[in-house]
## 1
Amino acid sequence: MVVDELRDADLDRLFQAFADATRRDIVTRVTAGEYSVSRLAEHYAMSFAAVQKHVAVLERASLVTKEKRGREQIVRAHHDGLQRARRLLDEYETIWRQRADRIADILAEGEEAL
Amino acid sequence: MVVDELRDADLDRLFQAFADATRRDIVTRVTAGEYSVSRLAEHYAMSFAAVQKHVAVLERASLVTKEKRGREQIVRAHHDGLQRARRLLDEYETIWRQRADRIADILAEGEEAL
DNA sequence: CTCATCTACAACCATTTGGTTGTAGAATAA
DNA sequence: TTATTCTACAACCAAATGGTTGTAGATGAG
């Protein structure tokens, strides 16, 4: 029962993008300020090309955008992606909490029955 | 600058676990009620072993727990994992919002200067 | 006891992922 | 112009991922 294949693929990309410490760090950095790809690359013990790939993953997940400025490519946070991820986790938590509440109710009923 | 390798690995596992539609669906189901592994497997177009692996991934990510009951293994949601994920995304959003506020302030200062 | 059910786990396979090096183009600096 | 910087992208590689089938051990039902 695949409800929405497109949305599923989007979420796959979104969470996959977060599933790497380097990429999470990139998100943190570009959320706090402006970075070109090469400036980002200075901070990691890996090749420029590897960082470039990480940025590409974040871009496909709609978590960052790139904007050309001269010969540089400026990476910026794209807030929408973050919001989508949070909203989904909120949904899960809401469902969970409803369940916990239901259990609490059942327990309360049980006490009344005593 | 790896701040906390253990925490990083935890988060890797956590988001990786969410990066698959089947696993997200499993989380939804076990959040709403009790399922044995084989009852979960009924809902997906894949082998029992595959579902077993998905559950194992969720377990390693501390998103679900398994509890033996007779010959069945009951899968339950483990709320802490969800909370951790949400908290991190909250942090990102907080940072982002602070940045947005700072920009707003700068723009406001600019208007005063006019 | 015997049979069916539920689970665990190994072995295997194709694809993806995360890294590398190398080449080439575009924009800036001297 | 020439050299340097920043980026893009291809080709390659090892390891992880997501699936399969098959085997075997526990447990419950008849």
## 2
Amino acid sequence: MVQESGRGRPRSESARASVLHAVDDLLVEVGYAALTMKGIAERAGVGRQTVYRWWSNKAEVLYEASVIDARQELAVSLTGVPRDDLRAYLDALTGFLAHSHAGAAYRALLGEAQHDEDVAALLASGDVLGESAAAVVAPLLEAGGGDLSPEQATALLIGPVFFHILSGRGPESVDTKKQVEQFLRALAAD
Amino acid sequence: MVQESGRGRPRSESARASVLHAVDDLLVEVGYAALTMKGIAERAGVGRQTVYRWWSNKAEVLYEASVIDARQELAVSLTGVPRDDLRAYLDALTGFLAHSHAGAAYRALLGEAQHDEDVAALLASGDVLGESAAAVVAPLLEAGGGDLSPEQATALLIGPVFFHILSGRGPESVDTKKQVEQFLRALAAD
Amino acid sequence: MVQESGRGRPRSESARASVLHAVDDLLVEVGYAALTMKGIAERAGVGRQTVYRWWSNKAEVLYEASVIDARQELAVSLTGVPRDDLRAYLDALTGFLAHSHAGAAYRALLGEAQHDEDVAALLASGDVLGESAAAVVAPLLEAGGGDLSPEQATALLIGPVFFHILSGRGPESVDTKKQVEQFLRALAAD
Amino acid sequence: MVQESGRGRPRSESARASVLHAVDDLLVEVGYAALTMKGIAERAGVGRQTVYRWWSNKAEVLYEASVIDARQELAVSLTGVPRDDLRAYLDALTGFLAHSHAGAAYRALLGEAQHDEDVAALLASGDVLGESAAAVVAPLLEAGGGDLSPEQATALLIGPVFFHILSGRGPESVDTKKQVEQFLRALAAD
DNA sequence: TACTAAACGAGACGGTACGTCGGGTCTTTCC
DNA sequence: GGAAAGACCCGACGTACCGTCTCGTTTAGTA
């Protein structure tokens, strides 16, 4: 993923874009399981070696292809009203995990990370969920009391939705309004 | 997975046991990614067709091999004291997800379920986490007030730990004692 | 292929007939290569073991199923006029090898015999071609002169047609009339 | 079986040679029936796909591996003396069919051709027997009279030996000297 | 009328080859 | 020296058939 300057032909930006675009399309069309390096290369109209040169496996390609979208979808413009901000964030999170392309990519990668430490490291390198939650949670912790660490607060906020969707319960039964109240109450005296 | 009918040679119980044993061993030895139907059959000293005859894929074998252990590890003997029971359950859950063989199998399956709906259906067919939590949560809901559905209470209890570990944050930063308090507070006035 | 008398259930004649019938049908429908012991048993509505009990491989079944037809098709009613009898025999031989079901079975078995000595022994045990030719050739050898052995005369008579058809030249280019003349001339002073 | 085009890695000549060598060895060692594409690839130290890429089945590999030897073994250096040339050819033919490796391959292929039209077409594409005989027969037909077609003369010459050996009568009873006389006499007034 | 014994159908068993697919690498030519 | 092309070796896929082995059932003797 490093690019050297100097001698030789420079990296083809069009090839890079083709690959990222291809992996995005393919994830939707065939799903993660049927996503292959060979298939990506063919769909992108690119040599196989070119894919391997810049990414070591399909997880890396997929990560690079989806992380920007993921960040955007999880970014909430803060109003300063805790209830509103939390609610907006949980809605965004639910939509991301349950319905978005980037979210599907994230879930696939997180699944792979359970038994592939390379993928786990990749995901840890850019903690999309944690960082997005921190933006909402940090102001509250600074302002309010509670002795919760930011990490714990994040887990408390994200956890229930995260579990709901990843365990296959579906997003319908997620009640973000009620969860905001629970979160605030749990936080309160802590 | 049951079969009955007088005719024909009956299913070999020893073959079944060999396969389940083999998949258990192999998960530990080579990991989920390198687990193959071929490898399972060879390790079990069994024909490949015999494996395919009773299980459609490695996820099914693994599920059958680990679900009983999983249930045992997550079963908590209730004392009737909410704080103690909840604490015991969260400790068991943390240990299961982070350190147990059966837990590793569960995490692998849950990962696969994110992009394979057959596996998702398989996991949904026996909701190990949900059921084990219900045993602890149900008494509280009956006793106490709150308008939380059992499902929501379960997600509230399990979610934070679940997120912590599956997102790669590690079990060290899980503080079950504090989480019990949060849970009880969130539940309280609801 | 032997049938013992005595205790126990006697061999089922209907099973035997079903198998022979099935192999006949299947040869025509799917060809020799796709003929399998399993397929025969299923088509005959018979247990696999029953087939194996009485025949050791598909060649044996096929041989038993076709040898009688073969003998019939190659039997020529002699008139005593050499030219007519030889002509009739060569016509029968051509038809047998090129167009008949039994002939297709024979060619398949002969092919297998080239690399399977069990099948070679099976074919040698009942030399359908040789015997049928002998019936036509023997009278000539007794009557006429020539120091040809019956075997050599048989080869001389059958050989050209046999080669023509088995080497894939097709039966159209077989001129039995001319071959009779050649045969008689070659035989003449020998 | 030819491939050309600048792009891409060119076909490995060493892989091709290994495969042809392997199939030759294996035919002798295990026989045609036990010859498998898998076995060929493994023996040649070559990927299975590489074998399938250039040959569709074991018959094609075997054909390519043996056809050159076959042609050599059946080539007779003509003296111009019919009796000598015919005799030499029949001796070569007998040796080829009965004792040579290439001949064993030919018989196996011819057997397969009886029930596999792909193999039949393959054999027909290079009529080793017909062409070799034509070289000996053509001069006679041009010189002498007779209204025999080259095809018929070929069948007349080859047929008896061919039948003798393929029908399992063995090469001992082949009397090439006598057969030359028969052939010449049959040819004579025709 | 039992009992015994073998053949019967069904179908699971351990094996192994099938032909295909993807993995990751290597070797060309072209840019 | 990057890139497209495509052949290379490897090994898992899921299927088919091999020949064998249990099962419960049926059909004869023989006792």
